[in-house]
Amino acid sequence: MDHDKGLIADVDLRSRENNLAHRTREIDRERLIVRRGQPFSITLQCSDFLPPKHHLALVLHLGKRDEVVIKLLKERGTGDMWWFNQQGVQDEILLTLHSPSDAVIGHYHLTVLIMSLDGRVLEKRENMTFHLLFNPWCKDDAVYLPDESLLQEYVMNEDGVIYLGTWDYIRTIPWNFGQFEDYVMDICFEILDNSKDALKNLEMDTERRSDPVYVTRMITAMVNSNGDRGVLTGRWNDPYPDGVAPYRWTGSVPILEQWSRAGARPVKYGQCWVFAGVACTVLRCLGIPTRLITNFSSAHDVDGNLSVDFLLNERLEPLHSTYKSDSSWNFHCWVESWMRRDDLLKGNDGWQVLDPTPQELSEGEFCCGPCPVVAIKEGNLGVKYDAPFVFAEVNADIIHWVVHQDGQRQKIRVDQSTVGRNISTKSVYSNHREDVTLHYKYPEGSKMEREVYQRAGRRGTEAVNDRLEPGKLQLTIKHTKPVFGTDFDVIVEVKNEGGMDTHAQLTILAAAVTYNSLHRGECQKKSISVMVPAHKVHKEVLRLRYDEYVRCVSEHHLIRVKAFLEAPGNNEPIMTVANVPLSMPELLVQVPGKAVVHRPLTAYMSFTNPLPVPLKGGVFTIEGAGLLSATEIHMNGDIAPGQRVSVKLSFSPVRTGVRKLLVDFDSDRLNDMKGVATVIVRKR
């Protein structure tokens, strides 16, 4: 037996070659990271290895405490099993390992055994580890996506664009997904290990990690911290004294790192685009093709009746605007992941909605999806998971009611075409917006759209009778695109299409709201009697001054104007609503010179204070995947009105390729200013 000691001199996991072939080199070059359903090779240096006297056996252990043990077959067996083959003799053996296309993703430990003819273990080499990920390049993997340009965007691209604002004034912010930054992959597995299912029964949970439906559902539950050890805590109104304001984040990596460092304690604070950005990072890192979606005029239907009811008092102020009433958000972000749905009837494969923002419970957990986008379009609401909730987000009616002092409700506005507009994602080919609304619904007013409503159990015939008859008077609101810090006008036009002069009572209310429609207070109100001549238009101007609206405006810089018109006689009262987004000044980011990996480079950032007041406590935050981790520059002293500010920062890029440098500026009175520069990093 003694002469058999030290039969295996060395094992080479060939990480560089394997990782390159498996498209994981961006994650790590030293550790072995491979994708399922695709073979990888390791080499053994052996002394005195003499077949048939000796033969090899391979065993895999999986899970935190090696819960799952897998013995590899020597040659390809029947069914989907791990197997290996060997080439070479005597001193060097090349072992090629084949994983099934539905293998469990995770952290594996490999043991190589040299066995004698009578089955004794002569030598054992362990402590060789590798990670296995989903493989969207493998045609038998449930996440297979057969288009290379889509894979480059939805798996490999670390830079994103998020669409925010309102459906008629869409703005963008850059986002650093950073799914291949150092330790992000380890944190993704740590998130799965901290889920309720994993903490309850790790072996059962580990075995289910072969299924992207299970894994994506776990991730949507774990990105928010409601009811578990999740990553982010949501908060929808300022102040944020004990955490980071949601609008200050420019990427997912600092959030994931902070959660991991704190021992799975939630990070404060997120709102929908932050939850979606973090989910997109985790899913892309694990190998599931994922994209971030923004739905404008997104309905949150609490009671499931497919209408969002807004109750106003006689002063047009919202009644009981608690979080648990119906609401319509200016925008709402979620993600879509691409997968086959073997758990559903045919026809439900492809993009699946996953929403990590905690809104409603789904089977007892704050998660949502995966829900097939095609099921939403066809109105098939019996499909799991959470189809009725997602359907309402893009299809609900909005009804405004005035509740009079005697408790009587009066319907003053029915809107059947506002919800679910300009559903947007970043284009595969550039930073342009791709509109995916027609993936979610048939064209507004089409025959197919009505059929879908009836299939979805929607008030089919009565919906038509619900519409308010158009009267002789019409009401519209017009505004420019004002810049935050300036005074501006809102013009309300009353048009009389009747043949008689009409007297009416006009109320105009300008209020500050958050993006998810929380009422933040009245900025200005005007109530007057108007006389509108027959076939003429009366214009009423409401002047909004910075020093008045700044007192109530939220961090989303949004003012909602409502106009309400009551005319005696047969006309129903009418109301119209407009959102006025206040745009932010430009933040200029420049990175001159040639960028070379591991060589210093300087970025210059500048902007001009547009406000008539000084800015205090200014701070720039700069980050970029492959460039530098999040870094802050604090401003000394105040920034005077009209003053131009410039700062610079030197850093050394760590990875080659096309990179994005993301900059955010915040201060006491001006927040969420974003800037971006593209940096092409070359080899030395």
Account of the 3D structure:
This protein is α+β, with helices and mostly antiparallel strands and 684 residues long. The protein has four domains: 2-133, Immunoglobulins (Immunoglobulin-like), CATH 2.60.40.10; 148-461, Alpha-Beta Complex (Coagulation Factor XIII, Chain A, domain 2); 470-581, Sandwich (Immunoglobulin-like); 588-682, Immunoglobulin-like. Helices cover 17% and strands 39% of the residues. It is built from 14 helices and 37 strands. Helix 3 (184-193) packs across helix 7 and helix 6 packs antiparallel against helix 8 (272-286).
Quick overview of this protein structure:
This protein has 684 residues and is of the alpha+beta class. The chain folds into 4 domains: 132 residues, Immunoglobulin-like (Sandwich); 314 residues, Transglutaminase-like (Coagulation Factor XIII, Chain A, domain 2, Alpha-Beta Complex), CATH 3.90.260; 112 residues, Immunoglobulins (Immunoglobulin-like); 95 residues, Immunoglobulins (Immunoglobulin-like), CATH 2.60.40.10.
